[in-house]
Amino acid sequence: MTFDVKRVRDAYPALSDGYAYLDGAAGTQVPTAVIEAIAGSYRTGIGNVGGTFPASGRSGSIVAECRQALADLTGGSPDGVILGPNMTTLTYRLADTLSRNWEAGDEVVVSRLDHDANIRPWVQAAARRGAMVRWAAVDMSTTELPAAQYGELLSERTRLVAVTAASNVVGTRPNVTAIAAAAHAVGALVYVDGVHATPHVPVDVGALGADFYATSAYKWSGPHIGAVVAEPALLETLQPDKLAPAPAGVPGRFERGTAAFADLAGVTAAVEHLASLAPGAPSAAPAGRRQRVLASMAAVEEYETRLFARLSGGLDTMEHVMQYGRAARRAPTAFFTVAGHTPGQVAAHLAERQVNVWHGDNYAWELAGVLGLRDSGGAVRAGLVHYNDEADVDRLLAAVAELA
Ligand SMILES: Cc1ncc(COP(=O)(O)O)c(C=O)c1O
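# pyridoxal-5'-phosphate complex -> structure
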């Protein structure tokens, strides 16, 4: 299947500045359709929700359409989509709510593969309740998170398992389905960090076994908005702190204050953009969007996997480069060090060559510790998304080769 990356790139005004944007794992650029959706909301006139006048009604429609778009993206239910500013804020909120009835002796399982946003909120909530934290380990030689270890980690006291669907640095995609099945067998809930996985693969929260699935639109061509997708019936059992006059139903009671309505219109446009990436997919028909998302993201996965082989294979040929990600199933994200140069120096050298990359621990703080990188400036991260092309990869490889 061919993937028309030229057509895709033309949709992103920012890509015309000549830089190779390999920083997508920290936030992607935004296509014109998303920019127009946000600007169009303001241009048309929006108000706060719940009023009697049309501008208020438009905001209500924007929120409803955004929940439906996220449901189409993840396979969840629109009534279970909690919207908020970002994944970290929402995860702290859910950790606070879910831990209300944890007791001393209860257990929580987190993993050293995860971004700190899916570790610290649970560790801190456990500490408040006197619950015990158990750690799933990363196999250093493969950067895998073996699912088999969960048999040992889980018990009838386990209340929650937090695990990532993909590492934001080494790209490892653990077997979340197997981990979730083991967690459910002991009655634990499963909180999946889908922030890094969502831009790269088709997502099905049911197939993953995720009771909660967190994602951030700014990692997949949308604005800076986060969401957590859960079953409405599960949310009905939870009572987050809320203002007295604020909505009492779900998912509204999990959302705080006034939403960023125009940005939510941008989220819907971003999902529509993702749904239109597959060759031959019609670009604007809302009907059957879930099917179009699945087909489109399958094409994205195939394209990115091919492009990543060029990136990773190219780095592997360089004796002065050490790559860390080695998992069998992984997102297209490279994490590497260059002999004789700090990660910050490498990133600065690449910036001079108009290549955007990140350096440091990228908040994969536990993993950086496991890999022995935490005190030495971390590593360089070059992440692909669907708008990157061979020229981006080749420019990175040429610039890194200069550092030999
Ligand atoms: C895997 C992963 N999880 C969580 C986060 C935190 O997301 P947010 O910035 O939406 O709080 C990030 C952000 O980089 C991430 O990459």
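# post-check
DSSP finds 14 helices and 13 strands in the chain.
The chain has a mean pLDDT of 96.
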